[in-house]
Amino acid sequence: MKIKIAECSGFCFGVKRAISMAKQALEKNKGRPVYSLGHIIHNSQVVEELSREGLKAIKDLDGIKEGVIVVSSHGASPALFEQLKSRGLEVIDATCPFVMSAQKIVKALNEEGYTIIILGDKEHPEVKSLLGFAKDKAIVVKDEKKIKGIEMSSKKIGLISQTTQSSENYNKVISEIMKKGFLEFRVFNTICNDTKKRQDSAARLAKNADTMIIVGGRMSANTKRLFQICSGICKDTYHIETEVELKTDWFTSRELVGIASGASTPDWIIEKAKSKITEISNS
Ligand code: SF4
Question: Structural domains in the chain?
Fold first, then answer.
């Protein structure tokens, strides 16, 4: 049995950058509390590792009056930045530059009076930050089915997507909007390059694999998207966070096992999964 890891795997640029900024903040601020609001990235094992180094993940700002706060790669709304500053906290902004570009787009669209539609998950921190930049005036849809019922506040439509969406979903939303009455329709390709490359390389591998293993956090939007794409191609596709979830019968009489990973999955977790699959196939 052969095991192949997708060409694009491991941390993406934005995640690497956020982790490195958090580590630098810990290094420079020994003796001061260093927080992240929510998880700095959507991978529990990395969050635990950073927590052992001193990064405290907090759910809200209750009782937080002093220290350093690292804003995650998903970004935060302008109102939240104001709140952090008004509490006198030192802010380290690790928002991924690709998310920042999307934030600037929604801000401008709102100022220019567009009906803003965001394709994404409204509970995801990146989408919440985008909503904040649109002064809560954007409409969030999770797929094309919601488009029909949307009331347009303006005949000018601006569409963007969460950075980790698939092009396929985005194209379906675009086609559905085209059926609505509008004067102007602006589409911004805010799916980040890493996401596109990762999805394409996983899909290529899934075409030839008998089993696909998707490694990544349960909260990670891009990992869930990879699972969705690969399971549409290879019926034996499984999502795991770590190698302990692997089951022997997933690998019985298989010739090729493919491994793809989310953008917040470190190489060491992927390697452990690969070793465990090798061990299963040799037993
Ligand atoms: S997936 Fe893309 S947008 Fe998200 S953090 Fe990584 S590089 Fe940035």
Answer: 2-10+193-282 (3.40.1010.20), 13-95 (3.40.50.11270), 98-187 (3.40.1010.20)
